[in-house]
Amino acid sequence: MNPAGDDSATTTTTTTTEAADGDLQRALEASLRDVGTMSAQEQDRLTIDQLNDIVATIAQEQPMVGAKVGISEALAAEYAENPMKGFALGIDILNAKYSAMRRVRKDGNCFYRGFLYRYLEALVLAQQQQPTTIPELVRIREVVKGSKKKLLDVGYDESAMDMFWEMFAELLDQVPSLTPDALHLKLNDEQGVSNHVVWFCRALSATQIKLNADRFAPFIMGEDGLADVDKFCRTEVEPVNHECEQVQIIALTEMLQVPVTIEYLDASGHPSSIVFPEGAHPTVKLLYRPGHYDILYDTTD
Amino acid sequence: MSSAARRRLVRDFRRLQSDPPSGVTAAPLDSNILVWQAVIFGPDDTPWEGGTFKLELSFTEDYPNKAPSVRFVTRIFHPNIYNDGQICLDILQNQWSPIYDISAILTSIQSLLSDPNPASPANSEASRLYCENRREYNRRVREVVEQSWLDEEDTTPAAAPAP
């Protein structure tokens, strides 16, 4: 809890754009270009209202997680007019390596949402093949069961956290009875558990950072050269719609012991791939373009 | 309404009763659990001392994944509160997180009263006076404190006009 006024990062709403995905932020900036003549106060207010409008519009126009689409089919048109030809080269390379992708809603939750969706989908698919509970489902249930004590140990309030924990555990319990299509509907249900389980991933990530504050601190350096782990969690991990950086990714993969591959597509023409943790063989693979994550499928998936 | 939002609001209410924060009260309308009325008492040893400030909190089905809309019903003179009562506070906007319950929201707003952030003004006059003329600022605050007592009388049933 951080009442206003104890430092410049709180209270002020001028950092509102940080809440947004990269694309969201650019749209916001474009819409604010003509407001130079307004007072700072009016602009501030406009920013909040516009951000809320943009988030609402995105929610109407884009599903939380889209249908499977071919890589070049999905990306080629998007970059057709892009003067930096490196993107087209990169898309060709990705197209050879991956069979499909799913777009994830650009609301700042894309990493957590994409990661969780793909992990659960793989779990559902693997469980469908087997008559008894698969070891990975047993393992992840134990991890989530054990996470409750950790959440409370780092100071989260039980009455605020219980519901999220319960919903996540219930969703895992439902895995044996779900088909991939049923999971897709569940994770796209605006009034369902989707946003709750996505936010629970933020809580898990923050908990891992707090539990290992000494190890994470060097990556969380504040403006004053001091690492304030609690403040980082409060301002960069826990708030809904805040984009995630590598620190949160590392923390979440450690907490769940679920690795992830991230393919970075940029203008270089050579997508680079990073595995968290190094040396693992993840099922979950995500495509990163500056400011946004989508889900990738191997040619073997 | 999603049962998740209702469940959480009931938990928030239980927490307010079992572990009441000092200087704030809140309860939902009898007719609608999505709308709450709250009172924040001005913090002691500040110009706000003695004030009784009413607020309204409106929740959506997305609570607690989305912040409630919170505004002062009582007129307030404060650097971070707009003339219409809307509050400029990080946790109600871009720093919202479901870890904040109603008790935490109201406690934060109470702290904001005596600890404003003039760098992020919602009321430029209040912000200017707070920085440049604290004596006059305090006088204006005392005015709204006294006004808050009159507002209270206005809304008691006895003072309400006959239908």
Structure description:
The complex is a heterodimer of chains A (about 300) and B (about 160). Chain A is α+β, with helices and mostly antiparallel strands and about 300 residues long. The radius of gyration of chain A is 20 Å and the shape is globular. Chain A is built from 12 helices and 6 strands. In chain A, helix 3 (about 70-80) packs antiparallel against helix 4 (about 85-95) and helix 6 (about 135-155) packs antiparallel against helix 7. The N and C termini of chain A lie far apart (about 45 Å). Chain B is an alpha+beta fold and about 160 residues long. Chain B is built from 4 helices and 4 strands; from the N terminus they run αββββααα. Chain B has helices at about 5-20, 100-115, 125-130, 135-155; strands at about 25-30, 35-40, 50-60, 70. Chain B is globular.
Which SSEs are present, and which pair or pack?
The complex is a heterodimer of chains A (301) and B (163).
Chain A: H1 22-31, H2 40-61, E1 65-69, H3 71-79, H4 86-97, E2 98-104, H5 110-128, H6 135-153, H7 158-174, H8 180-187, H9 194-211, H10 213-216, H11 229-237, H12 246-256, E3 260-264, E4 272-276, E5 284-289, E6 292-298
Parallel strand pairs in A: 3-5
Antiparallel strand pairs in A: 1-2, 2-6, 3-4, 5-6
Chain B: H1 3-18, E1 24-28, E2 35-41, E3 52-58, E4 69-72, H2 102-114, H3 124-132, H4 134-155
Helix pairs in contact in B: 3-4
Mean pLDDT of chain A: 86
Instruction: Give the helix tally of chain B.
Output: 4
Radius of gyration of chain B: 16 Å
| Beta-strand residue percentage of chain B | 5-15%
The number of distinct β-strands of chain A equals 6
Biggest sheet of chain A, in brief? 6 strands, mixed
Pfam families (chain A): Peptidase_C65
EC number (chain A): 3.4.19.12
Protein name (chain A): ubiquitinyl hydrolase 1
Domain OTU (chain A): 99-299
Descriptive keywords:
heterodimer, A: 301 residues, 3 helical TM bundles of succinate and fumarate reductases, Phosphorylase Kinase, domain 1, 2 domains, 6-stranded mixed β-sheet, 12% strand, B: 163 residues, alpha+beta, Ubiquitin Conjugating Enzyme, 4-stranded antiparallel β-sheet, 4 strands, disordered C terminus, thiol protease (chain A), EC 3.4.19.12 (chain A), ubl conjugation pathway (chain A), Peptidase_C65_otubain_sub1 (chain A), protease (chain A)
